[in-house]
Design goal:
Blueprint lengths: L7 E8 L3 H19 L9 H6 L4 H11 L3 E3 L1 H15 L3 E5 L4 H15 L7
Parallel strand pairs: 1-2, 1-3
Helix pairs in contact: 1-3, 4-5
């Protein structure tokens, strides 16, 4: 039994070396969510596939809403967003997931976020 409440929040966050790459990577997760919501689940598409996809107006509205809940950008932007979320919610801990195509983009995102907080990288 805890002496006090403890809140953990799961959050989708993706960091990249620059804003353009972050946007490019985060759109892969957005397209994956569109497909899931429309009964077409599958693997997260490549950045090239996501960039070439012609979102319908309804899909674009969904993507805009979904992206407003995904903290993404440069490492400093992501750290600021995560810090703001923790402060706003009173969360004691954040559990981060990165919806990106391929392990390399996810690993790089986690490394950049760890670096932004001065945490050690994976072993």
């Amino acid at each position: 039994v805890l002496d006090a409440p403890y809140a953990l929040i799961g959050v989708s966050a993706l960091a990249a070396d620059d804003e353009a790459e972050a946007r490019r990577q985060v759109l892969t997760g957005a397209l994956s969510m569109v497909r899931l919501r429309t009964g077409r689940p599958g693997l997260i598409p490549s950045p090239e596939e996501a960039a070439a996809y012609d979102f319908s107006p309804m899909e674009r509205e969904f993507v805009d809403g979904w992206l407003s809940n995904v903290i993404h950008g440069t490492p400093d932007e992501v750290r600021t967003g995560l810090d703001d979320l923790a402060k706003r919610t009173g969360a004691d801990e954040l559990m981060i997931t990165a919806n990106a195509h391929g392990g390399d983009a996810r690993l790089r995102s986690y490394e950049l976020i760890a670096d932004a907080y001065g945490l050690p990288r994976h072993a």
